[in-house]
Specification:
Structural class: alpha/beta
Shape: elongated
CATH topology of the largest domain: Alpha/beta knot
Helix content: 25-40%
Oligomer: single chain
CATH architecture of the largest domain: 3-Layer(aba) Sandwich
Number of strands: 9
Number of domains: 2
Radius of gyration: 22 Å
Number of helices: 9
CATH superfamily of the largest domain: SPOUT methyltransferase, trefoil knot domain
């Protein structure tokens, strides 16, 4: 998988790719990242990348010409040409990062990692700045417009780093334990999980779109609080049921909106109703 990032602040990414899982993935050649300075594609002595918006108003807008030149250097044709360009063109996604985009989700991360119907090998991220990007770039080149949340950032660089991290960790071989990408918040349902826990029955439960359950480790007692006994009794069925109940409790408390689209079994719904009765 290759990520291309187009930005007016290439130095922003200098330290991000030098730490943790991403550094190892880059070192092992599982992922490559190219960061491209948009100002390189200007032709005036001031290296101008922005201009005032048509119709008036506050702020400045990133110009279309430098972005089009940057994409052309990367071999990115307009969408209409890519859609008829065969498999090589189909393996690329061009994404504009902006506050006006669809909300980025774990499901989108899985799709971009090539775990969905489309087999992708390149993701191009355009970092918006100022009041935004000339909309013609979005219309001509971008497959999607993404936002990482309902708030406004100074630019798309932080969002690009988030997308790279979320997608990269799902690429086969990047995580030490492949199951780590399945058994976690917003993860897939049990029916979609392909990996299994070695040596013992699976004690975890696929998130199915819910939040993850609480985690505990040694010591068994800390700060006057003891880790739940159920996690230390070795009964995998009890552990699984406890973890699923905790997922439902945490999701109901922190993100009740997720329950609408979650993959819930009949047992899940009974547990959820019991939890709601408790709270009344």
């Amino acid at each position: 998988m290759r990520f291309e990032i187009v930005t007016i602040f290439p130095g922003f990414f200098a330290g991000i790719f030098e730490n943790g899982i991403l550094r190892r993935a880059l070192a092992e050649g599982l992922v490559t990242v190219g960061v491209h300075d948009l100002r390189t594609f200007t032709h005036d002595r001031h290296r101008t990348v922005d201009d005032r918006p048509f119709g008036g108003g506050e702020g400045m807008v990133l110009k279309a010409e430098p972005l089009a030149e940057a994409l052309d250097l990367l071999g990115i044709k307009p969408k209409t040409e890519r859609e008829s360009g065969g498999d090589a063109a189909a393996g690329t996604r061009v994404i504009l990062l902006s506050a006006q985009g669809r909300r980025f989700t774990q499901a989108m991360a899985r799709e971009l990692a090539g775990l969905g119907s489309a087999k992708l090998d390149r993701v191009v991220l355009i970092c918006g700045r100022y009041e935004g990007v000339d909309e013609r770039v979005n219309e001509l080149y971008c497959n999607m417009e993404l936002s990482i949340g309902d708030y406004v950032l100074s630019g798309g660089e932080l969002a690009a780093a988030v997308v790279v991290d979320a997608v990269m960790r799902l690429i086969p071989g990047v995580l030490g334990n492949e199951a780590s990408g399945e058994f976690e918040s917003f993860g897939v349902a049990d029916a979609e999980i392909t990996s299994d826990t070695e040596g013992v029955p699976r004690s975890q439960h696929g998130a199915g779109g819910l939040l993850d359950y609480p985690h505990y480790t040694r010591p068994a007692e800390f700060g006057g609080l003891r880790a739940p006994e159920v996690l230390m009794n070795g009964d995998h069925q009890q552990i699984r049921r406890w973890r699923r109940e905790q997922q439902l409790r945490k999701t109901l408390a922190n993100r009740p909106d997720l329950l609408e689209g979650a993959a819930l079994s009949a047992e899940d719904r009974r547990l959820l109703e019991a939890i709601r009765r408790e709270a009344r």
